[in-house]
Amino acid sequence: MDGEKRHQVVVLVRAGLIPMELGIVHRLFTTATDPDGRPLYSVRTCATVPGVVATDTDIGIQVPYGPEILREADTVVVPAAVEDYRPQERGRLDPEVRRALALVPEGARLASICTGAFVLAAAGHLDGRRATTHWKSCAELAALYPEAEVDPGVLYTDDGGVLTSAGVAAGVDLCLHMIRDDHGAEVANAVARDTVVPPHREGGQAQYIERPVPRESAPSPTAAARAYALEHIGEPLTLDDLARRAGISVRTLSRRFRRETGATPMRWLAEQRLDHARRLLERTDYAVDRIAADAGYGTGTAMRLHFREALGVSPRAYRNTFRVRGGPTP
Predict the structure, then answer these.
(1) Are 122 and 83 in contact (CB under 8 A)?
(2) 179 close to 171: Cβ distance less than 8 angstroms
(3) What residue spans of the chain are helical by DSSP H?
(4) Separation between Cα atoms, residue 116 and residue 137, nearest integer Å
(5) Residue 44: enclosing H or E segment and its boundaries?
(6) What are 94-130's pLDDT values in tens digits?
(7) Is 224 buried (19+), middle (13-18) or exposed (0-12) by CB count in 10 A?
């Protein structure tokens, strides 16, 4: 990034670290690049004392940095550790970890993965904020920290620059959400493709979703409905349309859709429309009215209302922030 400082992501790890959660942060953020292939993030790992940090496996992680690098962070991520799964006490936090977090500059983004939320809560960062953690620990977090609004039914939360996520896999969704907020849907989707993960699961999606493994001889009836919806995203689709395409009743479609995607059919469709509109704003010079028609909003006015509600910005402001210069026009 010529003449620009990369966004500094610092991961603060503790003894008993879950290695996968550290790997998620490094893999996703370091995969994000600009149109010229230059990295958009620098990711470093620190501990209260540099050296080998034990994990919850039979391996240790060599951590090269101490807490001083937190002073340079734009985003700080706190993964879970084994100690978080033991019975907790209000405000209990290793003094060295507390001192380390005090080094984080004002205005830096703070995020936790899984039960790393207990660290943010103990340090006072979840006071008055919406938060989540692994569904098994949500009740304990809510009981210990009633000043936080704990939501056990979501994958992640984002409240005023403080973010939390549910279990390990939800850390993927959280990181993609941050990348999407920083650099737009095109960059986030490219990262998802490179790492072979779903490009967009909304934070409000349910944490615990039963996902039966489909047999090849019995594909999901909703797959045909979803494929049809994506091919006809610009049309005014209804529940009846999708159920008819799937060959099942509306009630059955709704039940299976929620079980397989964690969302209702119309909520899922709304997410697809929003993602399609975002990509067109980023990659084309189309007028808002044309994009609204292509994405199934009908009118530019309706699309503006949806953007305000979902993203807090207008389509024009979104385009000004995330326009991919020199990108292809379909």
Answers:
(1) no
(2) no
(3) 19-31, 95-101, 117-122, 138-144, 170-183, 185-195, 221-231, 239-246, 250-261, 265-283, 288-295, 300-311, 315-322
(4) 11
(5) strand 41-46
(6) 999 999 999 999 999 999 999 999 999 999 999 999 9
(7) middle
